[in-house]
Queue: 3 jobs
Job 1
Amino acid sequence: MLGRGIGVHHSGILPILKEVVEMLFQKGFVKVLFATETFAMGVNMPARTVVFDTLRKHDGNEFRDLLAGEYIQMAGRAGRRGLDVTGNVILLCKGDVPELAPLQRMMMGKPIQLQSKFRVTYGMILNLHKVESLQVEDIMRRSYSEFPSRRDSTGQEKCCEELTTKLSNIQRVECSTCNQDINDYYKSCDEIFNIQREVMQAFFNRTAKKLELGRVVVANLPLHENTPCLVLSHNIDKSCTVLILEDSDNRSNQGEINKFQPSVTPYSKSVWHPTGKWSHSVIDIKWDLFTAVTTEVIKVNADSIVNDFKKRQIPRFMADPPGQSCITATLELKRLAESNREGFRALTLKDVGIKDIDIVEQGFLMETLKNRIGTFSCLECPSFKEHFNTVSIIYNLEAKLNAIKFRLSNASLLLLPEYQDRVAILRSLDYMDDTGTVRLKGRVAGAISNHELLITELVFRNVLRDLEPAAIAAVLSCTVFDQRHSSPPRLTRELEAAKSAVIAVAEELEGLQEARSIIIPKQDTIEEHRFNLVEVVYEWARGQPFCTLTDLTDVQEGVIVRTIQRLVEVCKDVRTAARTLGDAILHSKLDDASQLIKRDIVFAASLYTQ
C-alpha cells in the first residue's frame, strides 16, 4: 500500500514501520493515511485534508462522543503552512447525518479542565522517608491538586494576623455572675442552633411537598427572631413563599433576607408579634431560616393573597387596601401570635414519620439542651445581653482564625488521609518501623518504579528466585501488559504455579488496602495483572524468532514490542532490588533475563537516530 501512497499508523504496528510511515508522510509520498488520534499529536505532521471516520471513540471504558479538545487537536492538522490557503475537515456520514447539538458541543465546547494526576505511591513515601530534609507533606502541598485551596496562602496568613490582633484587642468579660457559665451557655445555644438547622432541613426534605398551605411556621429573620409566618407556596429552590407580620415603620427587604446568615443568639421560645402600628409582607424564605413548624393551620386562599400583594407593589395600586383574603389571614396570624407568646406547639419528628436514627437522636439532644438552657446562672446578670454579644464575637473570631489555620496546615491536605493509610500498610508489612525509619523491605521497594509492593513480596517470598531466567521475564510481563481482551496462553506447569503465586500475593495486598479504604489505582488491581502474553514472552526469551510469536496470540505486533520494551525496565528494577537485598543468584538471573529479551527487531534502533 505504501507504494501506492496509502499508509496505516496505529499502536498495533511495529515501531520501526510507524517511523517509516511518518517519514514518508512528511516527505509527501503518503497521500492517504489511516491513523488514530495519537498521530495528530505530531506537530510536524500537517495534512491538506482531515477526514473523521466517526465522531465517537472508545476511551478504555465505553464509547463516547469526541471531546472539544480531541476534535480541535485532530482537526488542527488540516492545512499545511506555506502550501494550503485553507485546511479541509470532512465528517464522514456512513449512516444518518449527525445532529446539530452534538456537533456544536464537539466543535465549540469548553476545553477539558486540568486535573491533577499526582498521587501518593508507596515508592514515593519510602524514598522520601529516606531523606530527612524532605517530607511527603511538602510534596503534596506543592501539587496541583492543592493549588485551588492554597493559591491565596499569603492573603490567608495576613488575614490570620489581623484576626489575632482583633482578638487580643477585645476586652474580655469580667463579671462574677457571667464568668461562671456564660461560655457553656453560648456553646449550648450554638449546639441548639446547629442541630435545629439540621433537623429542620430533614423535616422539610421529608414534608415540604406534603406541608399544607396555610401552615404556621416560625423563622429567624433579620428584623426579628421567632417571627410567625404563614406558608403560601413551596418553591423548587428549597424555600417557601410566606406571609409575615411586621412593624409599619420597619419593613422587610427581600434582598436582605436573601443575604441574611443567622447567627447564634440567646435561646428563646417567645414569639415576636407587633405591638404598635403593623403591616404585612409576602416574602420568600429559605428552609434554613425556619426554627419550627407549628400544629396551627389557617384556611387561606394562597394565590389570592400572593396576587393581591404583588398588585399593591405596583406604584399606581400602592394606596389600595388589602383584599379580603389578605386581611382575614393577617388578622388570624396576629391573633395566633398574641395567644402563643411563649411559643407555639411544634410538630415533632414522630408526627411527620421521620425515623432516621441520627436525626431522631439529634432531636432528643436538642430537646434536652432546651430544657436545660434556663438553668444557667449567667441569665441573672443585668448586663447579660452585652456580655453574651462579647462572647459571641470572641467565639466567631476564634472560629474564623481556626478555620484559616486549618487550611494553612498539613491537616487540610486532600491526600493526607490516603498517605497516612499507606504508611500504616507499609508498617504492617514491615517496610518501615513506627518511627518512620525505612527497613530492608522498604529499601528494596523504593528501587522499584511500579507495582512496588507486589514485586517486593515476590522477591522476598522467593517466587522468582526458583524460576529460570526466561520464566522470570514471562511472569513479570503481567505487570506491563495492559490489553484487556486477547487469546488465553498455554502455560507450562512451572508458569502456572508462578501465576497462582502472583495472584495470591496480589489478592493479599489488595485485601489489606481495601480494609483501610485505600483507593487502589486501576493499574494495580488484580484484574489489571494480565497473563495473556506470558507464553509469548517466554518463547521470545527462549530464542524463538519474532515471526512465530504472532501464531501464539492475537495481540498485535506493536503491542508485543511495547510490552517487551517496558519489561526490560521492570527487569532492571528487580535486578537493582536483588542487589540491594544481596541476592546474587536472583541478580544474575535477572541480568540473563534482560539479555534474553533485549534483541532483534524488538530493540531495533530508531530510524530518527540514523
Job 2
Amino acid sequence: MNRPEDAAQFITVSDPVQHSEGMNKYTSYRVDVRAPPTPASSPSATATASSAPPNTDNQDNGDVFQNTISSAVLRRYSDFLWLYTRLHKERAGAIIPPLPEKQAVSRFSSAFVEERRRFLEKFVRRVAVHPELYDAASLDTFLRADDATFHAAKNVKGHGGDANNAMIMSMSVNYNQNMAYSQNNTNMAYSQSQSGMPMGATSPLPKKDGIKKWFAEAKTSIAGELVRSPDDGLFVEIDRYTDGLEKQMKNVQLQASALVKKNKEIANGLFEFGLAFNVLGQSEADDLGKALTKMGTAADELSSVSMVHSEREMMQFEEPLKDYLKTIHAVKLALQRRHEKRLTYTTCLAEVNTKRTNLAKFRATPGAEAKAYGAEMSLKRGESAADAARDAFATVSQRVLREVDRFKREKGDEMRRVVLDYITLQIEYNKKMEQVWAELLPKLESIQAPGDNGTSASSGAGDGTYDNGGEIPNNVVTGESEEVQDLSQQEQHQQHQTTNVYQPNMNMSVGHSMLGLGDSVQYRDNTNVISGM
C-alpha cells in the first residue's frame, strides 16, 4: 500500500558529505529534483486538484513543479530547519510534516547520518505533495536556488530568528525529548498555550522592532478577553480530540518499543543458546556431538532470523507509530498558530479602541488639532492592521479545519497500513522459524543413540528370542549382565573380609530378590568361619 509521499519519488536526498570549517563541522546533503514523467499529471497537481483550495496567501506563487527542469543543490540540516520554520510562517495553520530531531552526540556516525538522510527525504517529499504547502515560495527557493540566492533568502529580514520561529523550533525539533515528560506536564504546557502564555519558556526575546507588539499581545493574553468566532466550540472539541489521541498513541508507542526490545533480546538469547550447544557438541564424540552441533547451528540461524525480524519491526511498526505521534504534535502546532492569529486580531481591536478614545479626546481639546490629525492617521493604520489580522485569523481558522479533516481521513488509512504490515511481518517471521525447526527435526531423528545399534548376549536378543527354544537360560539374568554378577560377589566378599563380623539377621533371600538373581548365584558357606570364631 503506497503512502502519500511515494508520489514524490522524483525528489531525492542523497550523498551525505561531512565538511569542516574551523571548529564548525556539519554534513551536507544533495537534494535532486528530477522532471516528473508527465507534467500534466504531476504528483502535486494530482494532490491539489481535489483537495487544495485557492491560495490566498501568496497569489504570485506558482506550482513549484510547473518548471520541469531538473535541479540539484547542496543543503545542510539547518537549511531544512529554515524551510520548516518558513512554512509555519507562510502557511500558518497547516500541518507541517515533522523534521528529524537534533542530536548532540554521535551525529557524524554513519548510522545516524543515513537515518537522518532518510527522514529528511521523507520530509521534503511530504511537503511536495502537501495540498497546503506544495506551492510555497520557500519550498521553491529551497529546491532550486543556488548558494548565493539561498543565503540571501535566509538572511532576509523576517525570514527567521524571531521569537515565533524560535518557539516553533523548540517545540518541534526537540519533541522526542519532551515525550519523556509526564502527561500532566504536557497538558499543563498546552493549557498555558491556549490561554496565551508562550509554550517555550526558554525562547529568546523578540527583536527590538517586535517588542511593542509582543507586550501588547501579552497584555491581551493576560486579560483573557479574546475575540470570539462561530467556530470556537468546534476548535474546543478538536483540542480534546488531539489530547486524548496523543495520550492513547503514546501508550501504544511505548508498548511497541518494549515489544521490539524484547524481540531483540530473544535474538541475542538464541545466539548465546546456539553458541553453548556448539561448544557442547565439540566436547562430545560420534553421533551425539553431531546432534548437539546441529542444534547449535539451528539456534544460530534462528537468532539471525529473529534479529532481522526485530529490525523490520522497528522500521515498519515502531517508527511509523513514533512518526504518527509527531504528526499529532504537528496538529497541535497548527492549532497554536490559529490561537496566535486570534491573539493578534484581539490585540489589534484593543489598539483600535484605544486610538479612537485618544482621537476623541484630542478633538475635544482646543488647540490640539495637530495631535488630533496624528491620532486620526494612527487610527486608520490601526483599523487597516485590524482588518488584515481579521482576514488572517479567518484564513488560518479555515485552513486548520481543512487540515484536521484531512488528518482524520489519512489517520485511518495510516493505522490500517501499519497494522496490516505488522500482521504480515509476524506471519512471515513465524513461517521462517517453523521452517528452521522443521528442517532440524529429521536431521536429529536420523542420528541413532549410542545403545540403539548394540548387540545383546545372544544373536536373537534383538527380537526377544533365544537359541534354546525361546526359554531364558539360567546363565542369563534379566536386566543384569554377568559382569554385574561377578562384581556383586567380589563386593560382598570384600565386605565380609573387612568387617569379619557375621550378622545373623541378614536375610539373603531378600538380597537375591532385590538383585533379581534367583538361584543362579552361589554364595560361599561361612559355617567354618562362624565355628572358628
Job 3
Amino acid sequence: MYKFGNVAVKFSSGFVCSSFENCNMAARVICSLPYEQISNQMAKLDVKTQLRANEGKPQFVLKTPKGTRDYNPKQMAIREKVFNTIINSFKRHGAETIDTPVFELKETLMGKYGEDSKLIYDLKDQGGELLSLRYDLTVPFARYLAMNKITNIKRYHIAKVYRRDNPAMTRGRYREFYQCDFDVAGQYDAMIPDAECLKIIHEILSELKLGEFQIKVNDRRILDGMFEVCGVPADKFRTICSSVDKMDKTAWEDVKKEMVAEKGLAPETADKIGEYVQLKGNSDLIDRLLKDDKLSANKAALEGLQDMRQLFVYLKLFGVEEKIAFDLSLARGLDYYTGVIYEAVLVQTQADGEAQQNDSSESAGVGSIAGGGRYDGLVGMFDPKGRKVPCVGFSVGIERIFSIVEQKVEASDQKVRTTETQVFVATAQKDLLEERMKMLADLWQSGIKAEFTYKKDPKLLNQLQYCEEAGIPLIAIIGEQELKDGVVKLRVVSTREEINVARSNLREEIKKRTCQS
C-alpha cells in the first residue's frame, strides 16, 4: 500500500514514508520490487483494511432459535384452514373464548406437571417477580377461574406455549408451539361433559381427514387403584405412573426395567402391574375388570370403572364408540389429572408403514395428536379457601396436525392459495390508474376482496400471469371503450371466458361467481 504526501507508505521490510521529500524515494523502491511481491503485499494490506472496517460490527448467524420456525404464506394458509376447522367445532358446541398472559408467576406453574416441570422456561427476575413462560393453557385457565371466582364456563383458548424440550421439528415437536384447548368447568352429572369432549375430538379429527385414528381412554382412579392392589407404595404412584405413560413408545420390558432399576420398585410388584397395563379393549374389558375381585374391591378403581362404563354408554349415543379404546397403559404424566384421561393417536396402516420405511425422514411418526382429561382439584390449588371447581377438557396438538396436513399437501402437489382476493382490477391501456382506483374503492366499500398492481401503466400480460399464479378467480378489465359503454370486461381466469358486465351490476356478478353473498 502506498500513498503520497503526509500518508505513510509501508512495506514488509519496515520501510515507512511519511513526508513529501521521501515520496520519490518510496516510488523508486516500489518500482525496484518484483511485481509478485508488490501484489502479495497489496493483497495482505487489503485484507487488513477490510478487517479494520468490520471492527465493531456484530457477527451473528441468521437463524431462528432452537425448536422454533418461521412460516411462509403457503404454510400460514394451511395453518389458518386447520385453525378454522377446530374453532368452528368449538363454537358448534357452544364454547366462548378467553386469553391469559404468556407468562405467569413461577409459583403458579411449579408442582403441576410432575417430572415435566423441568421443561418450564424461567424468566430473569423482573421487578421482584419470579416469572415463567406458560407450559400449557390448562394451569393458567385454572388460575383464571380461581382469581375471578368463576364456577361454570365452557371455553376454548388458542395460544402459544413454551417448553424447554429437545425438539424433533420434523415430527411436529417444538419449544414454541400453539395449543388449542377446550374445557368445561362446573358441577355436572358424571361423564356427560367428558363424553362431549371425546365427541369434539372425534369431530375435529374426522373433518381434518388426517387418516385413521383412535382415541385411547383410561381413568386415574383405575390406575391408582391398580397400583395400590399391586403393592406400589403411595409415594411412588406418580413416578410409576410416569413410567407407565411411556408404554406407547417403549416396550414393557424396558418400562419394567426403569420401574425396578431406577425407581426402586420390587420386581414382583412390577410384574403384577404388567398384567394390567398390557390390557386393551372396549366396554367388554370394563365388565371383565369389574369382575376382578381384587380390583373391584378397591374403592377408587371401582368408581373409575363404573364411570368408564357409563362413559361408553354416552359415547355410543354420540356415535363415536367405534373409535374409542379402553387402554390401561394410558397414564398421561401430568400431576393434576384426577379422573378420566384420554389421548388421540393416528393408526398406521400397512401402506403407511411401507411408505415410512421408504422415507428416510421422520415426518411420518408424529405421536399423539390430542389429549386431555378430568382435573377436579386444580382450581382448588389456587383458591384461598380451597374451593374446588370440577373441570374436564383437552388440547389439540396443532403443530403435529399441521405437519401431517403440510406433508399431505406437498405429496399431492395441491395448489394452495395464500390470499382470498376475489377479483383483480386490470387495464390494457395507459393513463387509467385513476379509474382503476375508483373501481377498487367501490369494490372494497362493498366488502369485495380486490387488488391491483402498483404500476401506473402495467402490461396486461403481466397482470394476467399474476392472477393465474396467485389463483385469483376473476379479472375486471377496464379500457377507454369500456368506460364509454359503462361496462367492465370480466374475465374468468380458469376458463379465460370474458363477458361484458354493466358497471352497476359488477359487484353482484363478482359475488355470485365467487360464491360470496
